[in-house]
């Protein structure tokens, strides 16, 4: 088995070399590779595991790990932009797969189309079609996803729910039934954190109201933000917010999750990085210690977000960068990285034994569910829209008017060319 | 109308005592100068009178009222500081008017008093200027004006002239004196400059290390110093001070300093063979025509070391019987080193001090 | 303090020319560097703010920038989507005013207390100055914890047996001093008239003629806005309410905490620089401690007050990291134009609009510093 994998890798490599630099033939790679990311801290070891494998395979390549920490990538993105504008792109850089990459870098014609690379590597078949649709455009595929996270997950403590006598709601209507009961007991029905977690909650609520088809239509421009259907999402969102904690804006997502763990709140909707936090930091056992379910009304839908790496035009070390991308797309690479990062592989053929209970369940869903992209994490809308979404949310929180908010959202969408 | 009285006044800073039980009475309208080397406690005494320092022991009375616990402003004293302490952001007028404003005088009243003081001090043209735009002498006058407008019962001066150049200092000294004659206010003046003390004072108080050495009129402290320190401190050029031995033979007495023996004309309460310090004021030594006015025994031939001509006067350093002395002589003395010269000594002005106690022996 | 002017005719003209040339040559490198890297870049930023650089191809290798005039500015002040920026601007005004009042007031009081040399003066000086040495991120994190709804400041009263406070320091959505952005023009004119009238009344005592020149236009402007204010164009097509968001209060507290020690040190240095004689003189002149500070010490340290105002107002205009650490980047309640500029430029890729915000901030900063520079230049000339 091992030998087989190895042989596959070697073959893949040869293919890369042939595709990338036909003149060089199957010579061993040498030189440098600069990879740019905001992965330090918790994600550092996962990235290091990948670099270790890369080093083993290409001992003559010097890997430069350029990390810019802080602000969940805000700082790194700013640094990246100044580098790119200055004509000094790194060989490969981390970016949220989807419109965050496409809207900024593909539209600016700064990325290489990876379709030939995907075909050579056989990635067209191992990645789900829904994923490929989200990371590409009609002009090509633009990045290699390293990991997959799910956004629409609801977290809870089974023992607590039993104590309070409530069941996990499958729809928002069920939630609205149990929420007043929880509130009467002095329990916050839904824990919420600072600003971006509000956006995160919004996409789960909106997905449940619109359904997968209309969600996609919203972002392809086929469904207007101020259409009655889309407006309904804001109505529903108003209702949901009534059952959240008042001090949300002062809490980090971890603190919001803590509320659930401590029994001060019943549920929390957060991406599945919360699984890592609950099991590693909070020392709770998956399934028994903490439980999860798709956020209300989104069962059968997998709202994904992914970190990915692309190949900027004008990269100084194109060959070593291609080898890096090949490693990221490979089963070996992704199965080394994802268990450490607490995410799942984008490949449908990953080795599930390497993942924990949550990862296995998520991987199973990823294989069968309808895949949609996340807004809050850069898949469905470009950076301009995401930035202005903050002011949409501001309008909403100030006016509590779904009509005004939906109108504002449509203006923002038009301005930022959503669906174009 | 204010007499200032210090009774056993003591000042301590922490464990260091700097003023040791001072007793002093300053009569109404008197101009008294506290003089002494730095660190003698003169400024401290002044500041205690002003109320800027607390009194550690004893009592200070102004106009027969104890004021130890009275706020500075209520003591009715005004002070002129060494560096003038003018408020730099205020005009001359505002500087002078400040205390009146604080006292709540009416605008007309302030205007009248300030203008009056400005008139006296010839400051009227400068009332709208800031201190930075004035010369040193003008600033000095503003500082005085600020004191005058309050019409205090006691003026306190803390080395007010020491920041001025020599010429201006002499001029301001005269003005100060005139001002005092005009205002007739009790004045306490602190300086380390004995010339200022001699020229200004009705009464000089000489201090050293927190003790009063002598209180007296300028002539008194010059001619009859209480001790060696006073004799040395007062007078410029300084007194010639030489160790000697007193001899008494019947009615006549003399003093021997090395190879020089001077007859002592007055009967002194000294023992034969008593060791003394002999003080001779440089101006008690004469040359030229005036030598002939002295009896023959009072004339001596000396060897010139160096002669300095100071305009109308000359300073002569000479040796007589291996003693080096300085004489302050009238006229221009042209003499070379090693030349001999006849000098007359006014032996009536000889001063004797005990070498041990350093007290004057009369 | 320069003394009286002395004509320096003694120095030869050729000598002075030589001096000037060598001084110029010494300064030349820094003149060139500052010219390029400060003024050149300000100019470039201004040009960008007049362009349409942004949108989908903003980051292309050679982005297309076309001239659009003041469209970006117009959009920020009157456009539908500029609401966030407008609230940020209002916030910035309140940040500045409150920081100035708080840090200077508290710093001054502390300096006065320490100026009277209490026991342990140097210890307290260090204590008060310490926050200054922290970075904004650290301050922000500390205060974020202290101002948490269920902890820190809010539970302080419980130590003396009182019920805990319930004020949501950083998450409050209340606002006071509300006004409608539509009425921006009348409000600005009212402010102008108010300033003129107050200034006029202040001058009335010393210079009645000049006072009338101020008072009459003040009353005329105020009165005509009151009578015909409705005729003024509205700044916006819809009602938009802005005000002093109470959530900013926590951030203001943290900034004051950090900077009052600094102003204290500034003032303390100034007070210590005043000679003891001056203080004694004031005492003999009958000034109480309060009057000493009011009439002598404070006027004398006016340059310090001015530099403190300039420094603090600049700090309040550059407030970024503290807000970032305390309430995060997308919190409209506590937003600030500097934060908005960063996000607009580097997250939304709207470089032109980001440049426009930067230029607006630059102009606001200039309004603080230029009058100061003019007055100090004039003072130097008149001496």
From TrEMBL, chain A:
Keywords: Signal, Transport. Part of a binding-protein-dependent transport system for a sugar. Residues 1-26 form the signal peptide. Pfam families: SBP_bac_1 (PF01547). InterPro entries: Bact_solute-bd_prot1, SBP. This is Probable sugar-binding periplasmic protein. The lineage of its organism: Bacteria, Pseudomonadati, Thermodesulfobacteriota, Desulfobulbia, Desulfobulbales. One of its GO terms (cellular component) is periplasmic space. Gene3D superfamilies: Periplasmic binding protein-like II (3.40.190.10). It is found in: Periplasm. PANTHER family: ARABINOSE-BINDING PROTEIN-RELATED (PTHR43649), BINDING PROTEIN COMPONENT OF ABC SUGAR TRANSPORTER-RELATED (PTHR43649:SF28). It comes from Desulfopila aestuarii DSM 18488. Belongs to the bacterial solute-binding protein 1 family.
TrEMBL record, chain B:
SUPFAM superfamilies: MOP-like, P-loop containing nucleoside triphosphate hydrolases. Keywords: ATP-binding, Nucleotide-binding, Transport. One of its GO terms (biological process) is carbohydrate transport. The keyword Transport applies. GO terms for molecular function: ABC-type transporter activity; ATP binding; ATP hydrolysis activity. It comes from the Bacteria. InterPro entries: AAA+_ATPase, ABC_transporter-like_ATP-bd, ABC_transporter-like_CS, ABC_transpr_MalK-like, ABC_transpr_MalK/UgpC-like, Mo/tungstate-bd_C_term_dom, NA-bd_OB-fold, OB_MalK-like. Residues 4-234 form the ABC transporter domain. GO terms for cellular component: ATP-binding cassette (ABC) transporter complex, substrate-binding subunit-containing. This is Carbohydrate ABC transporter ATP-binding protein, CUT1 family. The lineage of its organism: Bacteria, Pseudomonadati, Thermodesulfobacteriota, Desulfobulbia, Desulfobulbales.
UniProtKB/TrEMBL annotation, chain C:
GO terms for biological process: transmembrane transport. Residues 89-372 form the ABC transmembrane type-1 domain. It holds the Pfam family BPD_transp_1. InterPro entries: ABC_transporter_permease, MetI-like, MetI-like_sf. It is found in: Cell membrane. The keyword rRNA processing does not apply. GO terms for cellular component: plasma membrane. Its main location: membrane. It is a multi-pass membrane protein. SUPFAM superfamilies: MetI-like. The chain crosses the membrane at residues 21-42, 92-114, 126-146, 187-204, 211-229, 249-274, 295-317, 351-374. It comes from the Bacteria. Keywords: Cell membrane, Membrane, Transmembrane, Transmembrane helix, Transport. Belongs to the binding-protein-dependent transport system permease family. PANTHER family: ABC TRANSPORTER PERMEASE PROTEIN (PTHR30193:SF42). This is Glucose ABC transporter membrane protein/mannose ABC transporter membrane protein. It comes from Desulfopila aestuarii DSM 18488. The lineage of its organism: Bacteria, Pseudomonadati, Thermodesulfobacteriota, Desulfobulbia, Desulfobulbales.
């Amino acid at each position: 088995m091992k030998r087989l994998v190895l042989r596959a890798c070697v073959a893949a490599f040869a293919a890369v070399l042939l595709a990338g630099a036909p003149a060089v033939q199957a010579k061993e790679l040498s030189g440098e590779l600069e990879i740019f990311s905001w992965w330090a801290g918790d994600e550092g070891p996962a990235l290091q595991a990948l670099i270790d494998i890369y080093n083993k395979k290409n001992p003559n390549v010097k890997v430069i790990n350029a990390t810019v920490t802080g602000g969940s990538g805000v700082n790194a993105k700013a640094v990246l932009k100044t580098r790119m504008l200055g004509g000094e792109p790194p060989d490969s850089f981390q970016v949220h797969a989807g419109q965050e990459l496409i809207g900024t870098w593909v539209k600016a014609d700064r990325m290489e189309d990876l379709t030939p690379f995907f075909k050579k590597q056989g990635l067209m078949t191992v990645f789900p079609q829904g994923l490929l649709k989200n990371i590409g455009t009609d002009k090509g595929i633009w990045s290699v996803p390293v990991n997959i996270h799910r956004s629409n997950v609801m977290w809870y403590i089974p023992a607590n729910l039993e104590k309070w006598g409530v069941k996990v709601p499958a729809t928002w209507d069920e939630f609205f039934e149990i929420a007043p009961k929880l509130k009467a007991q002095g329990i916050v029905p839904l824990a919420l954190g600072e600003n971006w977690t509000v956006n995160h909650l919004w996409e789960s609520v909106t997905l449940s109201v619109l359904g997968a088809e209309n969600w996609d239509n919203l972002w392809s421009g086929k469904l207007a933000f101020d259409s009655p259907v889309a407006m309904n999402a804001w109505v529903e969102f108003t209702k949901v917010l009534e059952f959240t904690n008042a001090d949300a804006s002062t809490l980090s997502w971890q603190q919001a999750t803590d509320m659930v763990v401590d029994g001060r709140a019943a549920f929390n909707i957060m991406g599945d990085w919360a699984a890592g936090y609950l099991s590693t930091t909070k020392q709770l056992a998956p399934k028994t210690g903490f439980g999860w379910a798709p956020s209300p009304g989104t069962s059968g839908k997998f709202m994904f977000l992914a970190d990915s790496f692309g190949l900027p035009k004008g990269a100084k070390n194109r060959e070593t960068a291609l080898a890096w991308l090949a490693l990221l797309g490979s089963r070996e690479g992704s199965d080394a990285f994802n268990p450490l990062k607490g995410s799942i592989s984008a490949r449908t053929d990953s080795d599930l034994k390497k993942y924990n209970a949550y990862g296995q369940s998520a991987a199973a869903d990823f294989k069968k569910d309808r895949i949609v992209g996340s807004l809050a994490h850069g898949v469905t809308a470009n950076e301009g829209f995401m930035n202005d979404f903050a002011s949409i949310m501001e309008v909403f929180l100030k006016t509590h008017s779904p009509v005004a908010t939906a109108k504002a959202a449509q203006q923002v969408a038009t301005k930022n060319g959503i669906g174009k | 109308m204010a007499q200032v009285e210090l009774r056993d006044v003591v000042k301590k800073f922490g464990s260091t005592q700097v003023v040791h039980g001072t007793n002093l009475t300053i009569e109404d309208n008197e101009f008294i100068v506290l003089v002494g080397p730095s660190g003698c406690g003169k400024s401290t005494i002044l500041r205690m009178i002003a109320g800027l320092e607390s009194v550690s022991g004893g009592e200070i009375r102004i106009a027969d009222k104890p004021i130890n616990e009275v706020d500075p402003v209520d003591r009715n004293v005004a002070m002129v500081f060494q560096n003038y302490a003018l408020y730099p952001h205020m005009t001359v007028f505002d500087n002078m008017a400040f205390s009146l404003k604080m006292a709540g005088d009416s605008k007309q009243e302030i205007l009248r008093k300030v203008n009056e003081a400005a008139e006296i001090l010839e400051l009227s043209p400068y009332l709208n200027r800031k201190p930075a735009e004035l010369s040193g002498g003008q600033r000095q006058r503003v500082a005085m004006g600020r004191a005058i407008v309050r019409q205090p019962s006691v003026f306190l001066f803390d080395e007010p002239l020491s920041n001025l150049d020599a010429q201006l200092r002499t001029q301001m000294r005269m003005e100060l004196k005139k001002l005092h004659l005009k205002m007739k206010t009790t004045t306490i003046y602190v300086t380390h400059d004995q010339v200022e003390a001699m020229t200004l004072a009705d009464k000089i108080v000489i201090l050293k290390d927190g003790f009063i050495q002598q209180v007296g009129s300028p002539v008194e402290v010059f001619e009859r110093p209480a001790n060696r320190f006073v004799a040395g401190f007062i007078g410029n050029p300084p007194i010639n001070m030489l160790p000697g031995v007193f001899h008494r033979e019947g009615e006549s007495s003399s003093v021997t300093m090395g190879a020089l023996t001077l007859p002592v004309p007055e009967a002194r309460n000294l023992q034969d063979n008593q060791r003394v310090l002999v003080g001779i004021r440089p101006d008690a030594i004469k040359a030229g025509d005036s030598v002939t006015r002295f009896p023959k025994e009072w004339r001596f031939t000396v060897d010139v070391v160096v002669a300095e001509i100071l305009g109308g006067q000359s300073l002569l350093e000479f040796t007589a019987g291996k003693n080096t002395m300085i004489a302050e002589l009238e006229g221009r003395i042209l003499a070379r080193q090693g030349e001999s010269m006849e000098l007359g000594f006014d032996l009536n002005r000889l001063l004797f001090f005990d070498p041990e106690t350093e007290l004057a022996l009369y | 303090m320069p003394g009286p002017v002395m004509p320096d005719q003694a120095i030869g003209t050729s000598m002075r020319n030589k001096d000037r040339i060598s001084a110029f040559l010494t300064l030349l490198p820094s003149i060139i560097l500052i010219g390029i890297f400060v003024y050149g870049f300000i100019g470039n930023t201004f040009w960008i703010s007049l362009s349409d650089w942004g949108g989908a191809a903003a980051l292309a290798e050679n982005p297309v920038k076309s001239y659009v005039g003041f469209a970006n500015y117009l959009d920020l002040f009157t456009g539908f989507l500029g609401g966030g920026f407008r609230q940020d601007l209002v916030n910035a005004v309140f940040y500045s005013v409150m920081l100035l009042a708080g840090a200077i007031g508290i710093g001054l009081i502390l300096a006065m207390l320490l100026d009277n040399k209490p026991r342990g003066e140097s210890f307290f000086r260090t204590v008060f100055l310490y926050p200054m040495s922290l970075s904004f991120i650290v301050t922000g994190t500390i205060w974020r914890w202290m101002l948490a709804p269920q902890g820190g400041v809010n539970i302080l009263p419980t130590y003396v047996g009182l019920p805990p406070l319930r004020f949501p320091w950083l998450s409050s959505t209340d606002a006071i001093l509300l006004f409608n952005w539509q009425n921006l023009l009348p409000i600005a004119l009212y402010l102008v008239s108010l300033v003129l009238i107050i200034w006029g009344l202040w001058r009335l005592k010393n210079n009645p003629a000049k006072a009338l020149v101020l008072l009459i236009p003040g009353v005329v402007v105020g009165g005509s806005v009151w009578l015909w204010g409705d005729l003024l164009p509205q700044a916006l097509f819809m009602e938009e309410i802005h005000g002093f968001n109470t959530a900013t209060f926590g951030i203001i507290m943290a900034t004051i905490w950090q900077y009052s020690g600094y102003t204290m040190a500034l003032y303390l240095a100034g007070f210590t620089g005043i000679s003891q004689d001056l203080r004694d003189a004031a005492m003999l002149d009958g000034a109480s401690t309060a009057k000493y500070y009011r009439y002598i010490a404070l006027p004398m340290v006016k340059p310090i007050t001015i530099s403190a105002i300039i420094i603090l107002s600049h700090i309040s205009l550059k407030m970024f990291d503290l807000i970032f650490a305390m309430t995060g980047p997308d919190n409209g309640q506590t937003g600030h134009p500097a934060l908005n500029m960063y996000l607009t430029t580097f997250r939304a890729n709207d470089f032109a609009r980001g440049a426009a915000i930067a230029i607006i901030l630059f102009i606001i900063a200039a309004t603080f510093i230029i009058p100061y520079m003019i007055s100090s230049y004039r003072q130097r000339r008149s001496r």
